[in-house]
């Protein structure tokens, strides 16, 4: 793997920094009339599309790992390592689906669930790394060889941008204030 020059970092900063700047700026800018800023439009539509696709990405990652899982199954403790990793990924998939449903129902809990999903990215990654390393007796640096860190870091940064948007956006605040019927029943009991 080659070195990452200052120009690479500048390009990454531009690719991430410019959209973040405009997303946070537009989310924080007070609207002349905030009432019409309700529903899935503007930046929230992009977030909704990304959230709808995120479970599919998790399933695709599981499918892409199938060959690696078959190789691990032949090792001592391999099946346990595979089952643990699959379980972690399915738990994360379940969380993604809960967040998606809360978003589609316009639940007031969506922003907190979205934040929880963001925090789950590094938790799942760390737990998975420790699980694989300890069961297979492989040093952590070998588990993290190659570009194993790139995808989780990119996911965490990208989701962090959207968390900042969710926390600051008037549209998000207006859209996810409605209490649905099941939440009303739960709060009445």
> What is the percent of helical residues?
over 70%
Radius of gyration: 20 Å
The major beta sheet can be summarized as:
none
Number of domains: 1
Name the beta content range.
under 5%
**What do the pLDDT scores average to?**
81
**Terminal residue distance:** 59 Å
Detail the poorly predicted runs: 180-185
Query: Total number of β-strand segments?
Result: 0
SSE string: HHHHHHHHH
| Tally of separate helices | 9
Helix vs. strand class: mainly alpha
What is the 3D form?
globular
How do you describe this structure in short?
Helices cover 76% and strands 0% of the residues.
Can you walk through the features of this model?
InterPro entries: DUF2569. The chain is mainly alpha-helical. It has one domain. Helices cover 76% and strands 0% of the residues. The protein is built from 9 helices and no strands. The protein is globular. 15% of the residues are buried. About 3% of the residues have low confidence.
Outline the secondary-structure elements.
Elements: H1 6-28, H2 42-64, H3 66-72, H4 78-104, H5 110-136, H6 140-143, H7 150-168, H8 170-175, H9 181-188
Q: What attributes characterize this protein structure?
A:
189 residues; 9 helices; 0% strand; globular; DUF2569 family protein; DUF2569
């Amino acid at each position: 793997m080659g070195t990452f020059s200052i120009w690479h970092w500048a390009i990454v900063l531009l690719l991430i920094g410019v959209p973040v700047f405009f997303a946070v700026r537009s989310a924080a800018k007070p609207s002349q009339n905030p009432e019409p800023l309700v529903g899935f439009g503007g930046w929230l539509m992009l977030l909704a599309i990304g959230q709808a696709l995120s479970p599919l990405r998790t399933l695709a990652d599981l499918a892409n790992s199938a060959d690696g899982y078959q190789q691990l199954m032949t090792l001592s403790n391999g099946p346990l390592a595979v089952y643990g990793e699959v379980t972690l990924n399915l738990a994360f998939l379940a969380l993604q689906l809960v967040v998606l449903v809360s978003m589609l129902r316009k639940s007031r809990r969506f922003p907190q669930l979205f934040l929880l999903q963001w925090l789950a990215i590094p938790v799942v990654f760390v737990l998975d790394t420790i699980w694989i390393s300890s069961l297979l007796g492989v040093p952590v640096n070998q588990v993290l060889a190659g570009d194993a860190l790139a995808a989780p870091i990119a996911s965490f940064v990208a989701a962090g941008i959207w968390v900042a948007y969710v926390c600051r956006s008037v549209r998000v605040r207006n859209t996810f204030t409605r209490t649905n019927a099941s939440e009303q029943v739960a709060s009445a009991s």
